[in-house]
Amino acid sequence: MFTGLSAFPLTPTSEDGIDERGFANLVARLSAAGVDSIGALGSTGGYAYLTREERARAARIAVDAAGGVPVMVGIGALRTSQVRAHAEDAQNAGASAVLLAPASYQPLNDDEVFGLFEDVSRELSVPLCVYDNPGTTHFTFSDELHGRIAALPNVAAVKIPGIPADQARERIATLRGKLPRDVAVGVSGDQFAAGGLNGGADLWFSVLGGLLPEHCLAITRAAADGDSGKATALSDQLSPLWTLFRQYGSIRVVSAAAEHLGLITGPNLPRPLRGLDPAARKEVAAVLDQILAE
Amino acid sequence: MFTGLSAFPLTPTSEDGIDERGFANLVARLSAAGVDSIGALGSTGGYAYLTREERARAARIAVDAAGGVPVMVGIGALRTSQVRAHAEDAQNAGASAVLLAPASYQPLNDDEVFGLFEDVSRELSVPLCVYDNPGTTHFTFSDELHGRIAALPNVAAVKIPGIPADQARERIATLRGKLPRDVAVGVSGDQFAAGGLNGGADLWFSVLGGLLPEHCLAITRAAADGDSGKATALSDQLSPLWTLFRQYGSIRVVSAAAEHLGLITGPNLPRPLRGLDPAARKEVAAVLDQILAE
C-alpha cells in the first residue's frame, strides 16, 4: 500500500465532537478520485487532539467510507500505553496500516524513541509507517535510528519531512542505504513533494491530497511516468497554496478551503486551534478559485 | 499562595499506573519540610502523559497528603475541552490553584493561546498560574501576550523559564511592567532560581524542591532575607546537580535520585520515557551523596 498518493484528510472537529458525516464525505471523495491510500488521523486529521473513543470511531468511519481503498490510521500519543490502545482500536476498525510519530512533551532521546517503536511494532498484525515530523513532534531522527527502527518487525515505511528538490535524490538514496530493502520511503511537506517523487520516493503522504486529490494525483502520476518536468510544473502551479501553507499552517488552510468548497462547515478545528480570520479566508478562497479555474 | 518555594514532585508512574502510596509519601514529605506550596502534575509530575482519571486521582492524593499546604494542580492538555475537564477535576479535588501551559502539537499562534486561557480562566473558582515553558510546549510568549492573558479573570501568577542571573532583575522588571500589579511572577529552571529570586521574583517553582525541599527552602529564605550572596552560594553548591539536569533532563535525574534515596522504586516514569542507565545512575548517586554529606 505504500505507493503513489496517500491522501490525508482533515477530521472536522468542533467543541461538539467530530462531524462524522462531513468526515465520511471527505474520505469517500478521496476514494472516488482514485487515491492509492488514505491516511486517517494524521497530523491534519487531528490525531493528537482526539480522545481514544473519537479516534476509534474516526478509524471505523474512514474504513467504511474508503470503499476498499487501504486506510492507514495514526496511532501516536505521548504515552506508550495509549499508543498501544490506539493500535488495537485501529486494527479492530480494519486499518490496513498504522502511522506512528514519536510525539513528545519531555524531549525524548534515541533509546526512548526506539523503545516506543519496539514496544508497539511487535504487537501489530498490520504494517507500521514511521512518521518523522520534527515540526510537530520536536524529535529529530538520525539515519542510524531510522535504520534500527526500520529493522523491527512490521515496520514497512518511513514518512520523511520535505526536502528541497535539489537535495531530494541524494537524501532519499542516503536514507535508503540505512533501511532494509523492502521498507518504503515516502515524502511529505506538500510543496516539496514533486521533488521528492522525482528524486525516487515511493510515495507522497499528502495534506493537499486530502482536499484536491485530482491535482495531487496528476503530480504523482507524472513523476511515476518519469516526466519530472511535468510533475514540477504541476506543483509550481500550486505554489500560491504552498505559500499560504507556510504562512498560516496547512491545517488551517485546508480547513478554510474545505469550507470554501462547501465540503464541511465551520468551526471544524479542535480548540485551541482556530480557523483563519476573514482576511486570510479571502486569500485562501482567491487562490483556490484561481487553481480550480485553470 | 504564590510566594516562597513551590515544590513540584514526580508522580511515580509505571505501565501499571500511578504508584499512589509513593506519590502520597513524596507529597507528605514536602509538607513536613515546610514548603510554601506544592505543584502537583507539573511537567515533572507527568501531567501530559496521564489520563483524566489518573490526573483526578493524583490531584486528590496530593491534596490529602499535603496536610493543609496549598496544592496547585497542572491542568494542561492539547485540547481545550480536555483542559476544562481537568480544571473541573482539580477544583473538585480541592486544588488551591491551577497551572496551565499552552501545550502544542500543531504550532499555536498568539490568538489561539489567548483563546485557550480565555476559555478556561472564566470558568474557574480558584486562581490560575500561566505556565511559560517553551522547552516542552514549543510556544514562545511575547510580553504583550503575557499582559493580555494576565488581565483575564482569575489569572494570578506567571511561571517563567530560567533567566541567567545577570539578566534576571531587568527581565522580571520588564515583565512586571506588562502585568497587573497583583499578578505574581515566579521563576523556574532550578539552576537559575537563586538569580531569579535575588532579582525580585515572588517565588520559585522548583523541580528539585520536590525532592530536596530543605536545600531549596534554604536558598529561598536567604533570598527573601535579602542575603543574595548566601542564596547564590547555596545554589552553587548544587551545581553538579544542575549539570546533570542539563545533561539528562531533570525528570530523569529526580527519578533516579528519588530511587537512590529509597523514596520510590523503579520504573517510575511513564513510557516512552525511560529511567537513566546504570552509568548515569552512578553519577546521580555520587552527586547526591556528596550534597547530602555537606
Automatic annotation (TrEMBL), chains A, B:
Binding site for pyruvate: 44
InterPro entries: Aldolase_TIM, DapA-like
GO molecular function annotation: 4-hydroxy-tetrahydrodipicolinate synthase activity
GO cellular component, one term: cytosol
Keywords: Lyase
Active site: 131, 159
Similarity comment: family membership: Belongs to the DapA family.
Name assigned to this protein: Dihydrodipicolinate synthase family protein
Species per Swiss-Prot/TrEMBL record: Saccharopolyspora elongata
